[in-house]
Amino acid sequence: MPKNIKQELEDSIPDHITMSGRQKQKILTEAAKRLERKPRHSSRLILPLVSAAAILGLSGILAAPYVQEEMKESEVRQQLDDTLEKVTVPDANYPSLVNSQYVEETKELVYTDGKGFYSFNKETKTTETLVKPEEGAGLYEFAVNGDWLVWDTQVKGYALNRQTHEIEEIPGELFGDYQVYGNLLSYLSVGTDDQFTGYKLLDLLTLHQSNLHELTGEGTSSQASLNDGYIVIPETIVENEEKNILFTLYDLKGREEEREFKVPYEQAVNVTLTDDKIYAELSNEGRSPGLAYISLDDGEVHKVKAPSFDAYAVYEDYLALSIPEKEDSNTVKLYRIVDDSAEALPAFEHVEERLVKPRFTDDGLLVVNGEGEDISMYLLDTEKIKN
């Protein structure tokens, strides 16, 4: 192939698009093959010129899909780079930050050191003490939004009204799995007073309690999942000596049960409700778990083809996986679920440190922890990525 034709093809490709030598050669070869199939009636003198021009023109047509694909990938890469934000919290240790929660409405990371609760505002770069530290408090699990902070001290439960700064003791026993929606708290209770084991609702303004869902099976391997006023509660049940997972969906706004979904698996881990789907790692004894979702539309189980992973988080069609990278190590990569398959996205390309603990906020902000010297965190807003 004449060198000037190759060079003209190079010149016809936009500067910000990078195509491999194999792609370029494939385009030129295909153009030449197509021309060879056409009858030639031109004179010998002008044939080389006509052929060269035709090859170049046809090459441009054949290159269009590659260029469009590369342009789209380049645009997505730029969007991912633009939305990625590094946040360094001063005077906070790694164990505190790895369990931190990001509150999008107030632009803050809320975390505990086991003694007290603190918030770091990423806009003002300031740290605020929400609950004064107390030695031996044993703080760990908590739920938070812009109005409330709820936690327990392994003895009693408490709720901080973030508007009035008043702390109320929560009556009864709290066993964990706290989820806050507006002024409502859902939590797991293993009661000794009323003999009720299951999920309860608490109005944080009035402290009025009500039973939401009684666990009658063999318990659960996953927390419940709350999304936009709906909560799904998983539990293992036994019917005719066979184990199944029962997912029960409730509407917290209407305080009523919506639907039940039963699937033939023994265990469901990391249940996540998003985009009218219930995601989970589903498994049976003796078999490796796999990522799948139950569609709220048809009630069927749909398996997701994805790389092997140690942890996952999902928001709509965005999937963050902690995947093996080196021997005895892993890091977080971002994917998009297309036709039930995970397609890699060029996120975190310039981050050299290991990334761990992927989790999404309710509004699609991906939060991961870095393990560099400054133990920074990284935030990536998927809502700013155009389709």
Automatic annotation (TrEMBL):
Which residues are listed as membrane-spanning?
A: 45-67
Q: Which UniProt keywords apply?
A: Membrane, Transmembrane, Transmembrane helix
- Superkingdom of origin organism: Bacteria
Q: What is this protein called?
A: Uncharacterized protein
